[in-house]
């Protein structure tokens, strides 16, 4: 474990997603303890995407932004909203120079798959259709997210490819939840890691899928053909059940001819970037912003 992260472990909430309302409350309380993000140079606007049902979004516009990313929060498919994602969305906008469109997709188990995917895809389509109004180059739109949100972003990319949907320039997948089967070494063995364990990952997928069978649009690693997808930047945390599925997905994308940059962050755990004082956390978000900036500028 990174020496700057380890002292915070006793302060982290217990890893248990059996009670979604309690988990949501704990996440909100944790985020409330973080320093307020620097928004001095950002134009921030709350909008509603007119689909059925409507999807709330928060748009972060830095100066002279050309590209944009449809950004999907983490939270095990059951937690997260615009306010809890505010620190990270603002930081990503500042670090990348891209417009960040943060999405409040519907949460499980109240609204199971494909509700969150439908919401995210609707926001992508709306962003592409309203690019001129938003001041965005329609050829420079990315999708991305953290954890469950990164998994949904990967699903959006698959769906856009299969349905000849909006053009996606890039995927920014941070510690993505991609595989419901939990058959990798990290998924089987990380039973007592911070924030995410084998048990909480199983709970998250159970809330998301219910009794429905998983499809590639729910769990992207189930897709047999990864060709023709957008280039990707993929991160994994060393002590995270998702680690090996993220690495495996990156390798399979490469084998399918997709350009990929992969970074496995030593000494980190799932969501450890929330400990902002740690140097490794600062490096992680700086690199996320740099990767997005480069991808949308090329």
UniProtKB/TrEMBL annotation:
Gene3D superfamilies: alpha/beta hydrolase. One of its GO terms (molecular function) is hydrolase activity. Residues 69-273 form the Alpha/beta hydrolase fold-3 domain. The keyword Zinc does not apply. Residues 9-21 have a biased composition (Low complexity). The keyword Metal-binding does not apply. Residues 1-23 are annotated as: Disordered. Pfam families: Abhydrolase_3. Keywords: Hydrolase. InterPro entries: AB_hydrolase_3 (IPR013094), AB_hydrolase_fold (IPR029058), GDXG_lipolytic_enzyme (IPR050300). This is Acetyl esterase/lipase. It comes from Lipingzhangella halophila. The lineage of its organism: Bacteria, Bacillati, Actinomycetota, Actinomycetes, Streptosporangiales.
């Amino acid at each position: 474990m990174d020496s700057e992260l380890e002292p915070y472990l006793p302060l982290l909430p217990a890893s248990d997603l059996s009670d979604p309302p309690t988990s949501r409350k704990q996440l909100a309380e944790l985020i409330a303890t973080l320093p307020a993000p620097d928004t001095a140079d950002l134009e921030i606007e709350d909008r509603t995407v007119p689909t059925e049902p409507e999807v709330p979004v928060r748009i972060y516009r830095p100066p002279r932004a050309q590209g944009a990313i449809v950004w999907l929060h983490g939270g095990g498919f059951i937690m997260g909203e615009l306010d809890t994602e505010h620190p990270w969305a603002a930081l990503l906008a500042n670090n990348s120079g891209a417009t960040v469109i943060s999405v409040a997709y519907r949460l499980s188990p109240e609204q199971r798959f494909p509700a969150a995917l439908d919401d995210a895809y609707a926001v992508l389509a709306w962003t592409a259709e309203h690019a001129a109004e938003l001041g965005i180059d329609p050829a420079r739109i990315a999708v991305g997210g953290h954890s469950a949100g990164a998994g949904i972003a990967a699903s959006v990319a698959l769906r856009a490819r299969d349905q000849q949907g909006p053009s996606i320039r890039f995927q920014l997948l941070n510690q993505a939840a991609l595989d419901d089967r939990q058959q990798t070494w990290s998924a089987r063995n990380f039973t007592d890691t911070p924030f995410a364990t084998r048990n909480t990952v199983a709970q998250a997928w159970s809330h998301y899928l219910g009794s429905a069978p998983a499809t590639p649009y729910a769990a992207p690693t189930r897709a047999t053909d990864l060709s023709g997808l957008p280039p990707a930047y993929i991160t994994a945390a060393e002590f995270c059940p998702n680690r090996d599925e993220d690495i495996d997905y990156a390798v399979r994308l490469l084998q399918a001819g997709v350009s990929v940059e992969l970074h496995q962050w030593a000494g980190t755990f799932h969501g450890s970037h929330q400990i902002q004082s740690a140097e490794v956390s600062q490096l992680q978000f700086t690199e996320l912003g740099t990767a997005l900036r480069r991808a949308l500028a090329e």
